[in-house]
Amino acid sequence: MSSSNFTGFVLAVVSSAFIGSSFIIKKKGLQLASANGPRASVGGYGYLLQPLWWVGMITMIVGEIANFVAYIYAPAVLVTPLGALSIIVSAVLAHFLLKEKLQKMDVLGCLLCIVGSTVVVLHAPEEKSLTSVLEIWELATQPAFLSYTASAIAVTLFLVLYCAPRYGQTNIFVYIGICSIIGSLTVMSVKAIGIAIKLTIEGSNQAFYFQTWIFLMVLVTCVIVQLNYLNMALDNFNTAVVSPIYYALFTAFTILASAIMFKDYSGQSVSSIVSELCGLITILSGTTLLHSTKEPDSPILTDLYTPLSPKVSWYIQGNGDPWKQKEEDAPPPFNLITVIRQDHFK
Question: Which InterPro entries does the entry mention (predicted)?
Answer without folding.
Answer: EmrE-like, Mg_trans_NIPA
